[in-house]
Design a protein that fits this description.
Elements lengths: L1 E8 L1 H20 L6 E15 L2 E12 L2 H7 L5 E3 L13 E2 L5 E3 L3 H12 L5 E3 L5 H14 L33 H11 L16 H17 L3 E3 L4 E7 L2 E7 L3 E4 L3 E3 L6 H9 L4 E3 L2 E10 H9 L15 E3 L5 E8 L3 E4 L9 E4 L8 E10 L11 H17 L3 E5 H6 L14 E2 L2 E3 L8 H17 L9 E6 L6 E3 L12 E3 L10 H18 E2 L2
Parallel strand pairs: 5-26, 6-7, 6-12, 7-8, 12-25, 17-21, 20-22
Antiparallel strand pairs: 1-3, 1-4, 2-3, 9-10, 10-11, 13-24, 14-19, 14-23, 15-16, 16-19, 17-18, 20-23
Helix pairs in contact: 3-6, 3-12, 5-12
């Protein structure tokens, strides 16, 4: 198999006559006939917008030929080379037989991928999820957005699929993939119902509507292989003896024994982290970021990125911006949602947090992203491992108070002037899931953070025309960007509590769906290396 880099094709040709067009281009590049081509596989697809509005897809392609060795020998094109082969291999299992089934706490990406791999290899894991199954959870979340009545155990943060289910479903990651785990994650998603294009898109995404089906299908596969997923099963305590995990307590009454417990709890499982802290599980406060969501008309972003407001054959345009402020803090966009919605993602009573979400078509009228500022343990009031949680909660309480339980919103012009906004039907309007109210969002954050956001917005306005327009919308608070805690683990991915495996974003070892899923697979591998199936 040969790999060809930088194969250019227009979006129109890609949509309307991809196979025929690529076959001709490959034949021309390799100086062969089209009949010599046996198979074409797209490995990577990215957008080349350097000469907008003339936009191209730049593709990396693997091609199988009748006589590859002879073709490669004659070819002098630097973009043609033998295709590297990286295939994922789950390790051989250990010799020590498990006494009890492994327990996985949480069914977010880390937990469900860990369970999926263990189930496929005979370990029959038990997944404990405090929230509801995906379909019931959707009803609870929708009820909250419409009525404002919060289910603290089943919401945007908790339930089947984790926080990522109600997000844009972005699958890009900066994690190195020399073992093929990234590709394995994407292939499992496709088996569970994701579109095949996620295997090659440079910035693949799924969307909330598709994710709900995917996580349900993955659960069915776990069950089919002898695993078990239990909903409304909150782990309220841990049984630890002689620095070894012995089991867990569920819903304050049921005891479940196991010497192998995976902590895939997600970044918002604050009460679970408090319990672990009381049980002296080693952990530390870590840096994260806080800020606000910004909304623009998607047409504004399209025009800046593509050169046209309503491009044919292209999806809604994304963006990524970052800057260094005068104070040395980083300010940057996070979880950018083209054609998306700002959503009320609260999980605790009388505290308000928001996030961004898109459906698979990304066809909403607004683009949104978090504009966030780095904070470190030095910014927190306390010095213990949970100081970052207290920092988040204080901001979320302020946001709840300012909005009286609704999402606080403000126009950029009023944010700069530090005055409350009033809704103006002549200006850009929010695209939100959950009730909102115009007010003074600036009152939520410390002034040093506000100053960093203002400096960043002005710099971003020079990068993307219209980014700092007067009617750009700001809402708050974005406080759940990543875990404020890191639970210590050793080179075998275990805590100092033997048999306890901190895993994924909530434990401080991932940032997003794909990296969390990859970490879940890593933990499954470590368990398998040590043990034989139950």
């Amino acid at each position: 198999m040969l790999r060809i880099n930088q194969v250019k094709i227009t979006p129109k040709d890609f949509v309307e006559r991809k196979e025929a067009c690529l076959s001709k281009k490959i034949a021309k590049i390799l100086h062969i006939t089209e009949e010599q081509i046996q198979n074409i596989q797209i490995v990577k697809q990215s957008i080349d917008a350097r000469k907008k509005p003339d936009i191209f897809y730049s593709l990396v392609i693997d091609v199988t030929l009748t006589d590859e060795e002879a073709v490669l020998k004659k070819c002098r094109n630097k973009n043609v080379m033998p295709a590297p082969e990286v295939s994922y291999q789950f390790p051989c299992t250990g010799s020590q037989k498990l006494k009890e089934r492994p327990i996985i706490i949480g069914s977010g990406p880390a937990g469900i991928f860990c369970a999926y791999q263990l189930a496929l290899h005979g370990f029959k894991p038990i997944v404990l999820e405090r929230g509801e199954d995906a379909e019931s959870r959707l009803k609870s979340v929708t009820h909250f957005w419409e009525k404002g009545e919060l289910n603290t155990n089943s919401n945007v943060q908790f339930g089947e699929g984790g926080a990522g289910t109600f997000s844009d479903g972005k699958l890009n990651t900066l994690v190195k993939d020399k073992y093929g785990r990234n590709k394995e994650v994407l292939q499992i998603f496709v088996k569970a119902g994701a579109p095949e294009k996620i295997l090659y898109e440079n910035k693949p995404h799924l969307g909330t509507d598709i994710l709900i089906t995917i996580v349900k299908n993955m659960r069915k596969e776990i069950n089919r292989h002898g695993g078990e997923v239990r909903f409304q099963s909150e782990v309220t305590d841990f049984i630890i003896e002689d620095h070894t995990i012995q089991g867990v307590i569920i819903n304050e009454r049921e005891q479940l024994k196991s010497n192998t417990v995976v902590l895939a709890i997600g970044h918002s499982a604050r009460n679970t982290l408090e319990t672990l802290y009381k049980r002296q599980v080693p952990m530390e406060a870590k840096a994260f970021a806080v800020g606000l969501r910004v909304e623009h008309s998607q047409k504004v972003i399209n025009h800046s990125q593509y050169g046209v407001a309503e491009p044919e054959y292209l999806d809604a345009a994304p963006y990524k911006v970052n800057a260094q402020t005068a104070t040395g803090r980083g300010v940057y966009s996070f979880c950018m949602c083209p054609g998306g919605y700002v959503v009320n993602s609260s999980s605790e009573q009388n505290r308000l947090a928001i996030n961004g979400m898109s459906y698979s078509k990304r066809d909403g009228k607004n683009a949104n992203s978090a504009i966030i500022v780095s904070v470190t343990p030095e910014d927190f009031a306390g010095e213990d491992a949970l100081a970052g949680i207290a920092f988040q909660r204080k901001l979320e309480e302020k946001a709840y108070q300012i909005g009286n339980g609704k999402i606080p919103v403000q126009y950029w012009c009023d944010y700069k002037a530090n005055i409350a906004s009033k809704e103006d039907t002549g200006k850009n309007q929010p695209a939100m899931k959950g009730a909102y109210v115009f007010t003074n969002v600036r009152e939520i954050l410390p002034e040093e953070i506000n100053a960093s956001i203002m400096e960043g917005m002005q710099k971003f306005g020079k990068m993307i025309k219209g980014f700092d327009a007067e009617d750009a919308l700001l809402s708050g608070i974005e406080s759940r960007t990543s875990s404020p805690v890191r639970i210590h683990r050793d080179e075998n991915l275990q805590s100092a509590i033997v048999g306890l495996y901190p895993c994924g974003e909530g434990a401080g070892y991932a940032g997003g769906i794909t990296s969390a899923a990859m970490d879940g697979i890593k933990v499954a591998e470590e368990i398998a290396k040590r043990f034989a199936p139950y």
